[in-house]
Amino acid sequence: MTTYTNPYTGQTINPSQVGYESLTISADTYLQWPINGTDTNVVANILEVSATASGKNVYLPPATQVSNGQAFIVRNVGSTGNYSFTLVDNSGNTVIVIPVAPTTATVNSYYVYLTNNTTTNGTWETLAMGIGTSSASASTLAGYGLTAINNTLNESTPVTLVSSTYSFKAADLSSLFVWTGGAGTLTLPSAPSLINGWYVFIKNDGTGIVNITTQGTSVIDGSSSTIQIQVGGTTAITTDGTNWYTYALSTASTFNYTQLYLTITGGTTTLTAVQAKNVVQEYAGTLTSNATIVLPPTVQIYALRNITTGSYSLTFTTGSGATLILPQNQTVIAICDGTNVYNANSASSSSINTLTLGNGSATNPSLSFVGDATTGLFLAASGQLGFATAGINAGELTANGLYLPVGINAGAF
Q1: What string of DSSP letters covers 271-302?
Q2: Cβ neighbours for 108, distance < 8 A, ≥ 6 positions apart
Q3: Higher per-residue pLDDT: 378 or 145
């Protein structure tokens, strides 16, 4: 440690000192110790500064050039139209942010002193000074979830966009994480490693389910180590230091009960976020090849209708898991569980008291089959049951008997 001593008394002294300095700054300003000073920007016993531009720094000289205990008073004497400035060490690290005084009668003043001069930057401490009272520095007090605005502490919720697997850290306290990817996972920190009351906000603006998982034996809301946030969903999640608890967990679906009418010709079509919000979806057009519709990997119920033409198939998928093939001229209620797409009416048997069908026609029978949509039953006329085979009228059953317009093949009915 370098020191300077009086040769007569042996006491530590400053090489030299200036009693008062007044600076008006509009750019970053570098100070010198009086013994090394070649201009007026020196560290005086009392240093008064007025900043005419925002975001400017006042740099201290090397701490190794003076003794521990070197001290001075710095004041921001600016008023309306002036700005705060930051006193920084020789490398630009913040020592103290000094705001503009609220009034001309109250000046923000700090006593600054050196406690360690073994490095160029040194270790600097500050004491707030004022008229009758002193107060702590907001910038010094601001921790996670807080920010300093002039000389006041204010709540802060930093926003972070994330689209891939992420593990939260203690420093993420009070932050909002906005998911922008497909299906993915966000992992909470170890609850015992955090303070009671640590929390984050999570919003799913992506295209797939977000899984929120815990570490260790901690559970969420007393039951599970994982919860899901659907597309458009939000939640806040906090810990008591042992387990996790959600509040304001969004359960409402963002899907609108509006209809998507989409003309396709074949190939693969991946629905946009706007298209996928429609629960009722109708697909039309003449297919020139097999068509595949890729739904978002999220839990949802759809009403799907295929009114395309052409001898090709229409398949629904999430890109993985089970797929659903929807024949032409058919409508189905489908369920997506985030991976698989399947027919909601998949029971092998059921019974109803009454079933009313549309009239249909030979080319589009009212009652047909999954494997053959043009073979089945239709209403040929009032009181006449029609039989369709491969899209043609193969027979009609009336009160007068059975009429077979296609005739009898090889003498057999």
Answers
A1: PPHHHHTEEEEEEESB-SS-EEEE--SSEEEE
A2: 75, 76, 98, 99, 100, 101, 130, 151
A3: 378
Residue 174 has pLDDT above 80, yes or no: yes
Q: Distance between CA atoms of 282 and 279, rounded to whole angstroms? A: 10
Beta strands in 205-255 (DSSP E): 210-213, 226-229, 234-239, 244-247
Q: Name the β-bridge partners of 238.
A: 199, 245
Residue pointed to by tokens 């609108």 = 256
- For residue 399, pLDDT over 60 is answered with yes
In total, the chain counts a number of residues equal to 413
User: Residue 82 corresponds to which tokens in the numbers above?
Assistant: 């002036």
In Å, how far from its chain's centre is CA 152? 28
Which is nearest to 87 in space by CA: 113, 121, 60, 126? Answer: 60
pTM of whole model > 0.85?
no
Residue with tokens 């003309």: 263
* CB count in 10 Å sphere of residue 296: 25
Which residues touch 119 (CB under 8 Å, ≥6 apart)? 63, 64
Convert the pLDDT of each residue in 318-343 to its tens digit.
Answer: 999 999 999 999 999 999 998 999 99
Cβ atoms 198, 168 nearer than 8 A: no
Give the CATH H-level superfamily of domain 159-247: gp9 (2.60.120.640)
The per-residue pLDDT for 410 is 59
CATH of domain 256-343: 2.60.120
Where, residue-wise, is CATH 2.60.120.640 in the chain? Answer: 159-247
